[in-house]
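Weekly sync notes, structure subgroup
Attendees: PM, AL, DS (notes)

Item 1: joint prediction request from the bench team. They want all two components modeled as one assembly rather than separately. Inputs as received:
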Amino acid sequence: MSTDIIINKVRSNPKFAELVHKRNSLAFSLTIAVLVLYFGFILLVGYAKGFLATPIGSNLMTFGVPIGIGVIVGAFVLTGIYVRKANAEFDTLTAQIVEETK
Amino acid sequence: MNRVLTLLTTAALTALPTVAMAAGVAADDIKKQATNFPAIIMFVIFVGITLGITYWAARRTKSAAAFYTAGGGITGGQNGLAIAGDYMSAASFLGITGLVYGSGYDGLIFSVGWLVGWPIVTFLVAEQLRNLGKFTFADVASFRFAQTPIRTLAACGSLVTVAFYLIAQMVGAGKLIQILFGLPYLWAVIIVGVLMIVYVTFGGMTATTWVQIIKAVLLLGGATFMALMVLIKFGFSPEALFKAAVDIHPKKVAIMGPGSLITDPISAISLGMALMFGTAGLPHILMRFFTVKDAKAARKSVFYATGFIGYFYILTFIMGFGAIALIAGNTANPAENPFLDQALVAAGKDAIAAIKGGSNMAVMHLANAVGGEYFLGFIAAIAFATILAVVSGLALAGASAISHDLYASVFKHGKAAEADEMRVSKIASVALGFLAVGLGIAFENQNVAYMVGLAFAIAASCNFPVLLMSVFWKGMTTRGAFIGGFLGLISAVALVVTGPTVWVKVLGNAAALQPYDNVAIFSMPIAFIGIWLFSLLDNSARAAEDKAGFEAQYIRCQTGIGAAGAASH
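Output from the run, pasted for the record:
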């Protein structure tokens, strides 16, 4: 089958629009979430060193330690959310589009 | 063979502490040797196994697809480990623990930055690469554009990134082996160069991937053990660990918060941008997404890799603090501390600054302190293996840029015979091996740390913008990508060279031409604005063609229809 026919078939399939819309909105929102999470942390490092260095209660542990580790864990969790959603939803849609294009 | 046997016998003998103890004064000498032999033996075992794998891989590496991508037969889990292996370089293993040792919390800031690039790779790059590319990220960046300019740009971006990363690894290897194995710097660099050539030339991506997987497992295992031992010593109480560290560290409680590493917000943001987006532009990492069979496996592999890397960075934080407490604080009197350079102690240096071999050796001394000399040998062998594996991955990425992008696409206009392309890639691997050894020797006494940062800045300012815009922005044209990409590359290099570290400390000038060492905050926008502006101004016939090609690319990118086959050829 020629490429043009494939393009037309995929383009006219409403599931393609659905896939693109769903995937892009998830990917872009999660990207923004990571940017906010990380640059929020970096802004604290740049502008609020004192806060990060503040001990929690009477401990030596500062707010900075759980926040820093939290960003690492948070980044992993966000990745997991995307992968889960993509495995369940996007792959099914993609498989249907590929099937209907044949 | 006889020499190996002698080594083994000596090691076996020194394993009996009573024998060494009974020898009295001589015990010290035996002890010093024992530090070397276990490390050398374990390294020899690692090399033996990896050479076996290379032999096995060589028989399967008959096609270009096998050479560049292991025939697409790597699973998501395996690739996750291999990516983690590529990323957990000696720079992060020795460097971050060293940074935590020297400055405490600052090390964690770096770890966080190094990790947060991975979600970006997952969301914006991994599946797109798998669906659009075949062997190199330039396949993707040049998908709908004029091949010659974009391949040239991508190959330059790849090779410059690889070169700086490679220098940092080679110098690190030489220094490490000098200290740990007692071998001369030159030998160490040559050993790394030769082994790298063998792995890459004969075993291609299959061997490189398995070397990386084995190393990743060993490194994660070793680091887990060390962190556990530290936690056990402090009864699994972070407070107790922090207390011991704060008590001994000359910066005292300041190690619990951000310190002098980040002096101003601009630098902080700039560093963050380079680390975050640079990850999504490292050619040796991007190449790994072609080794799996489809977009799903690509996505899965980044998820695993993110988990492994995040876990590893949390361990480096524990190990760094453990090193402060157990190495600098090994004895109440620094003059009796076996981990300190007594000449430095006598010169009035504090326990942190006087550490033998510099702060990058902190994790090595920690291995010795918590696991004894044999464990030190094990960790030393892993550290060497780490460098070897990362260097091999870099060499393969560099060789691919030369053979697949420059030779086959630019010089032969896509008409190169597969056998010729493979021959060029092997010649390129050998040449890169020699180059790496040469650079390793040339940069022996330079500050290595900034080079990894520079590699990330270039990846973030050239490779990443071109890749991202080519996939997501219909309006990008060949001319826009070419000019914008080169502006990013040139501005990143120029700004780093004129900054304080290179201009003053490396080149010996009196004052820096501009105050920033972290330059991505300037060079990244230069690249993106350059791409946007010059694409917008581009009214050529080629530009119309570039834009017309977007839809077909987008459909393949989103659905994988027409993506390069994954089966082994």
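Discussion: Chain B is about 75% helix and 0% strand.
Action: AL to compare against the crosslinking data before next sync.
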